[in-house]
Amino acid sequence: MFNAQYFRTFITLVETGSFTRTARRLEMTQPGVSQHVRKLELYLGKPLLDRQGRRFVLTEAGRRAYDYALKLFAEHEQFRHSLDDESLDSGECRLASPGSVGLMLYPFILGQQQMHTGLTVSYSFAFNHEIVTDVLAGRHDLGIVTEAVRHPDIECEAWHQEPLCLVVPADFAGTGLADLMGIGFISYSDGVNHAGVLLRHNFPAEFRSMSHFPRQGFTNEVSMVLDAVARGLGFTVVSRLVLETSPWQRQVKELSLPHPVHETLYLVTRRGSRMPRRYTRLLEAFREHRRHERYGHGELPVPEAGERLG
């Protein structure tokens, strides 16, 4: 007979790698854990573990059972949370974004949680492709990505825009493309794309390719890239969200450019799912917060043609 608790015990066993730790985490006895695994094996008709003394490895059936169990409980959690989709101020928020967005969005949502104690927040920092995979698997209700997604099971819509900033060391005295080539480029995951678009719009007669710039370094963590710039090792191009939350913002400066370029952020959800109203309220509140920070309480300017990225 199907028993969800057997699958839960099996997931925990795989994640801990130990019958003892599984028993401790689930507040069970070790024989009880073994019994759950045996009953699950009996139910599935396949051995799930290749036991080697006190250690074990998963069989092929065990790996497939683990993947199925993760999907099973992800769908269960999504169903459970969907029952509370009408509440604005309570329920769990499960979302993910790249670090460039989460550096400011995550603290903002935590502030909302402090005001509305019925909210709980599960926030993951990840790359775009990881976010899409996790939304499809039901591990997140909502993802925020920096590139439009085309997938038959994903709904993707443009949500928000942030300016891209050309950031140089605080003592940088240059103004042109040749000066930037002189100090070189510090890159990150989206760095080459962002820099290429911004420089192409502002130096159309001179800019050819980012490959012409000396590469001074790379980090896969966008929140750290301004550390290298602050040390005088080169320049970079980041979202204003990154610049405004950076601990090195006093050791760098934004180089003023005549033609602004904006990065577009997209919301991704599983096709056919209904996003709970609490997400809509949080997302709108954040956009309003950013609007007031950047423009005060006046009317929001409309970006001119050519300002968008993506």
From TrEMBL:
Q: Which PROSITE patterns did the record assign? A: HTH_LYSR
Which parts form a coiled-coil structure per UniProt?
Answer: none
Task: Please list the GO terms describing molecular function.
Answer: DNA-binding transcription factor activity; transcription cis-regulatory region binding
Q: Which InterPro entries match?
A: LysR_HTH_N, LysR_subst-bd, WH-like_DNA-bd_sf, WH_DNA-bd_sf
Task: Provide an example Pfam family for this protein.
Answer: HTH_1
Q: Does the keyword DNA-binding apply?
A: yes
Keyword terms of this UniProt record: DNA-binding, Transcription, Transcription regulation
Write down the species. Halomonas nitroreducens
Any stretches that span the bilayer, and where are they? none
**Where does the source fall among the domains of life?**
Bacteria
UniProt-listed CDD domains: PBP2_LTTR_substrate
* Annotated ranges, domain HTH lysR-type: 2-59
Give the matching PANTHER family.
HTH-TYPE TRANSCRIPTIONAL REGULATOR, TRANSCRIPTIONAL REGULATOR LYSR FAMILY
Record-given protein name: LysR family transcriptional regulator
Family named by the database record: Belongs to the LysR transcriptional regulatory family.
